[in-house]
Amino acid sequence: MTAVPDSLSGLPLIKTANDDKANTSASFLSFTLTNKSTVYVGYDARSTKLPTWLSGWTKLAATVATDDVKMGSFVLYSKSYNAGTVTLGGTMASPAAGALCNYIVFTRTTSNASAEIQPVNSNLAFGINGHSLGSDPYLEVGIDQQVALLKQMGMTYYRQDINFKTDGSMSSLNSFIPIYNATKAAGISILPMVYTTTLDYNQSESANYAAGHLKGAAVASKNSQYFKYYELGNELDNKAIVSGNGDKTTDYNLSKFKVIAAYLKGMDDGIKSVQPTAQTMIDASWLHFAYMQMLIDYGVKFDIVAWHWYSEMEKVAPKNPLKVTDITVKLSSLFSKPIWFTEVGQRYSNVADIEQQQNDFITSFYKKAKANPRVGALLLYELFDEPQKSANQLEANYGLIKWNSNMTKWTPKTVVNSLTVK
Fold first, then answer.
1. What is the CATH number of the domain that holds 139?
2. What number is the average pLDDT over the span 310-328?
3. Residue 64 belongs to a domain
4. Which ranges form a coiled coil (predicted)?
5. Which of 83, 235, 245, 386 has a CA-to-CA distance to 323 between 20 and 30 Å?
6. Does 208 lie in the same domain as 279?
7. Is there a single domain that holds both residue 281 and residue 338?
8. Whether the predicted pLDDT of 161 surpasses 70
9. Is 197 in contact with 261 (CB distance < 8 Å)?
C-alpha cells in the first residue's frame, strides 16, 4: 500500500496472507468487534465479479493505492456491524472472478467515525460562506441559528455576496443589519464579496478604472462601519482565460484582462481613498497563477491573495504537468502577500459516500492550511444545501448542512462533527 484515504489513516488493519488469495471458503476470516463499527474491505480492482459475501456492502469512491502496477489499487467497500464476531469469506468465494490479490480490512468504531480537528488557538482564521440575505434555506433557519452553527465549529468569518447600489448603499440593508448585529455580538466578522456590476468589457481601461473607483469609493463611504475586509469581484480570472492551465500570460485574452485589471485597480483605489485602513483581496481559482501576477504587475494594490479551491482540483492538481500537491505551498512560493482561501468545498456527485468524501477533503485541507503560516484564513463553501437550486446539483449540494424535508428539518453532514470544537 502506498496511500490510504485520510478517513482510514491510523485505523486497525487486517492484512490477510496473499498465499490465501484463491481461498473459496464462505468463512475464511473472523474477528471480534468490541463496539459498533464500520468495516472496510479493500478488494482487488481487477475483479470482474464479487463474492456473494460482499453483496449488500457499499462501494466507495475512495481507493487504497498500491505499488502493484498490474493491480493498481484496492477498491473499498463498507458495511456497519454491531459489536460481536464478524466473519468474512475468501477472496474467491463463489461467484468471484478476476481477483489476483487477497483483500485487506480496516475497522473503525462508529463513535469515532470522523477524523476530528479542532480549529482553536491557531493563527488561521476559520469561516464559511453563506447566503443569508435572500436564499430560502437561510431565511428559513434565521441568523441566530446560523451564528450558533458557526460558533459550534469555531468559525469567526462569514462570507456573504452583497449587492451594493450605485451610491454604495446595500440593496438589502434592512435585512443586513440584524445579521451584522448578531454576528458582531458573537465575535464573527462578515467578509463581503463586492459584485463588479459596473465593469464594462466594451469600454476602455480608463473608463473602467473610473467606474471601479466610483464603485469602491461609494461602497466604502456607506459601509466602512461594517467591514474591514473586502473581496473585489468573484472569479474574474475565468472571464479572461482562454486556454491552458492559467499559469502563463499567453493563457489569457490580454485586452479583456486589461479591462478587468483597470476596473479592479480603480475599485481598490476607490475603497482606500475613503477607508485607508481597509484590506482588499482579489480571488482566482485552479492554477490561474499568471492572472494574479499580472494584476500585481498592472499595479493593482490589493492586500491579500484570495483563492478558490474545490475537491476535484485537489484530486487532479498533482497529476497536472505542474504537479501541484499542496496549493497552499505553491501559492506561498509565488506570492509575498498573505493568502486567504475564501471558497473551499466538495463538488457533489451522486455516490453513496459523498458525505465521507466531503469530510475527508475538508479535514485534510484544513490541516494543510493550518500547517502553513502564510495562510491567513480558510472559508468553507457553504453552510447550507440549497435545494431550490436542484436544477444544478452542484449548486444545490455544497452545504455542510442538509435538508431532510423541503427546508423544514435539517441535519448536519458528517464533516460538522469533525469541525465541532470539543
1. 3.20.20.80
2. 96
3. yes
4. none
5. 235
6. yes
7. yes
8. yes
9. no
Instruction: Burial-class residue 222 by CB neighbours within 10 Å (0-12, 13-18, 19+).
Output: middle
Cα separation, 92 vs 113, in Å, equals: 30
Secondary structure class of 422 (helix, strand, coil): coil
The whole-number pLDDT of residue 7 equals 67
Q: Where are the alpha helices (DSSP H) in 186-340?
A: 205-223, 237-240, 254-274, 289-298, 311-316, 327-334
Note whether 232 and 305 are same-domain residues.
Answer: yes
Contact 294, 250 (CB under 8 A): no
Terminal Cα distance for the chain, rounded: 33
Lowest-confidence segment of 58-62, 71-75, 163-167 by average pLDDT:
58-62
Cβ–Cβ < 8 Å for 187, 126: no
* pLDDT given at position 11: 86
pLDDT surpasses 50 at 30:
yes
Q: Among 81, 112, 143, where does a domain finish?
A: 112
From residue 212, give the alpha-carbon distance in Å to each of 68, 208, 223, 291: 56, 6, 16, 18
pLDDT band at 111 (very low <50, low <70, confident <90, very high): very low
Which residue in 343, 342, 345, 327 sits closest to 394, CA to CA? 345
Residues 407, 275 share a domain: yes
Q: What is the DSSP letter of 121?
A: S
The label of the residue with cell 435572500 reads: 134
Residue 116 is predicted with a pLDDT of 46
CB 47 within 8 A of CB 110: no
Q: List the grid coordinates of 287.
A: 492554477
What's the number of CA atoms in the CB half-sphere (13 Å) around residue 287? 22
pLDDT digits (tens, 9 = 90+) for 370-387: 999 999 999 999 999 998
Please give the residue range of the domain that contains residue 224.
125-419
Question: Is residue 253 very low, low, confident or very high in pLDDT (cuts 50, 70, 90)?
Answer: very high
Nearest Cα neighbor of 250 from 277, 290, 289, 219 is 290
Residues 43 and 74 sit within 8 Å (Cβ to Cβ): yes
Q: Taking the CB of residue 58, how many other CB atoms lie within 10 A of it?
A: 15
Write down the mean pLDDT value for the chain.
92
Residue 168 near residue 220 (C-beta atoms within 8 A): yes
- Give 307-336 as a DSSP string: EEEEHHHHHHGGGSTT--S-HHHHHHHH-S
pTM recorded for the entire structure: 0.73
Residue with cell 455580538: 185
* Boundary (domain end) residue, out of 112, 139, 173: 112
* φ/ψ of residue 4, rounded to 5: -125, 155
Q: Which residues are paired to 44 by β-bridges?
A: 74
